[in-house]
Amino acid sequence: MKRAVIMGATSGIGWEVATILASKGWSLGIAGRREDKLKELRLLCLQRAEIVSGSSAADDTVGEVACENMVVTTSQMVEYQIIDIEKEEAPQLLHQLISRIGGMDLYFHTSGVGSHNKELEPLVELQTCSTNVLGFTRMIDTAWHYFKTVQEQLYVSENAGNSDGGLGFAGNEAKAVKDKLNVADDERSVAGDELGIASDRGSVADDERSVAGDERSVAGDELGIASDRGSVADDGRSVADDRRSVVNNKPRIADDKPMSGGNRPKIGDCMSYGHIAVISSIAGVKGLGPAPSYSATKHFNNTYIQALAQLSRNVRLNLPDAQKVKLKIYFTDIRPGFIDTPLLDTSKYHYPMLMSVDKVARKIVRAIERKQRVVVIDWRYRILVFFWRLIPNFIWERIRL
Q1: Which of 45, 165, 193, 198 could form an SS bridge with 223, CB 3.0 to 4.6 Å?
Q2: pTM for the whole thing?
Q3: How far apart are CA 38 and CA 12, in angstroms?
Q4: How far apart are CA 51 and CA 385, in angstroms?
């Protein structure tokens, strides 16, 4: 089961994406500053999960399967955590939330602020920078280090667990059952030998009738004992066969071991690469006069994610024995246009090509599932951004927005 943490889930895009992922069976860790909204969203996500699965998810029953030193949840979970990304304790709270849902495959960052500020009020500009730059960097770096640490721990533990030839957890149990089968075979062989001895004694008793009465009785007792042992051996073999059947039918959680850089775990397996997706904006393409700090911080988001994507491709995991394994994290930079969310004050300003949040959320989830690197939501904005890039700066700076 895939697990996602959504930062900024109390409204807008984060809220809608959470409900969609819940309906798709994801375990979720939702975070934001408003506890009442987090509780409401949690119940809604559990209801969506219950409708899809056809079973009650509200009881938060969680099954677990051991996978070396990791724990994989086998039923859907939704947990929440109050997190203010501008606070220094935010990374610690994020780790607590990750722990409560059993790990993290996707970190989805939707927290952000922005507003018109033609008067260039300092407090507005500084607040926007604090959330969209400092808070953004704090949380993205925490997610990046989490995925790096998990990959290092998994590679170390998996390589250590391959001393049995790569059988892993299920393979060790199968080997134990095989040993029990051999013991049962030995017991049955001993019982067969005792049966043969008892038969010989019975034959001797027939030839020596004068003295055979008592001996034949003894032989009969020994034959009964041997038969009982043979029955016990059969039962032992039957139990061993049943155990072998269980092992053969058991999901091979730890079979595919990453023995080298070319044999790595896949997303959604027990050992996940990791995926960081962020909401930036098409506003990061050019500086927008009516919203200086907003467009500047969104450009920072675009560039920072690009820098981390490049860094991740060139970073090697800190592994013993000089193993050369590169870090692998997927990045998705989502750049929507104007969306009908509380972030936009539609009562005071007119926003062209305004999109509904549910439509945008569906496209975002599709982009995340496809692991697209950069996504401009809606074909109209893709065309707009294309022509924006062609406008020289001396012309762009003379345009009145």
Answers
A1: 198
A2: 0.68
A3: 13
A4: 40
- Predicted confidence (pLDDT) at residue 282 exceeds the cutoff of 80: yes
Q: What is the pLDDT of residues 59-96, one digit of tens each?
A: 444 444 333 333 334 478 999 999 999 999 999 999 99
Residues 298-353 have pLDDT tens digits of 999 999 999 999 999 998 888 877 677 889 999 999 999 878 776 666 566 666 77
The sign of the CA dihedral 299, 302, 304, 306 is negative
